[in-house]
Amino acid sequence: MPLPSRILSSLVLLLVLALSLSCNPNPQPEALTPIPTLAPATTLTLVTELQEPPTAGGEAAPTAGDEASPSPAPASGDPASGAEVFSANCAACHGENAQGGVGPTLVSAEMAAKNDDHYRQTLLNGVQGTAMPAWGGRLSAQEIEDVIAFMRSLQ
């Protein structure tokens, strides 16, 4: 077989192969599959019995069927302790004095207007769709209150 015929035969073969592949594309699933993220899909809440000790006044402790409520926060935080916790855990994103960096500033008028419960929930659960992780499993309730007190001292 002469060389031009070989080239022509190869091209025809490649064309037939390309056409056959384009007629049968890679099948896709019926529905879109979610992209895995590092953020949890839901917030986990401990059973009420594990959050609150039984009351001394003879009241019955809530049962697992009762609606779970978050445990009360410590009375107040210590800004000095909060500065240490912030420096060790938060400063990498929010800056050493909470002026911002990778994460937003925490000392703006807009942030000062938010109540402590907003900060508490943000620290406990993180912010879905952002780089802000949930710290509820890593910081104690007192450490979270200390961080809030530190942030308030900067505002």
Percent of residues in helices comes to 40-55%
* Sheet/helix structural class: mainly alpha
Cα radius of gyration in angstroms: 29 Å
Low-confidence stretches: 48-52, 58-74
The mean pLDDT is 75
Number of strands: 0
Tell the overall outline: rod-shaped
Termini gap: 86 Å
Continuous helix count: 7
Largest sheet: none
Order of helices and strands, N to C? HHHHHHH
Portion in strands: under 5%
In short:
Helix content is 44%, strand content 0%.
Please describe what this structure looks like.
The protein is mostly helical and 155 residues long. It has helices spanning 3-23, 48-51, 79-89, 91-94, 109-112, 116-125, 141-154. The model is unreliable at 48-52 and 58-74 (pLDDT under 50).
Strands, helices and their partners?
Layout: H1 3-23, H2 48-51, H3 79-89, H4 91-94, H5 109-112, H6 116-125, H7 141-154
Helix pairs in contact: 3-7
Q: What keywords describe this structure?
A:
155 residues, mainly alpha, 7 helices, 0% strand, rod-shaped
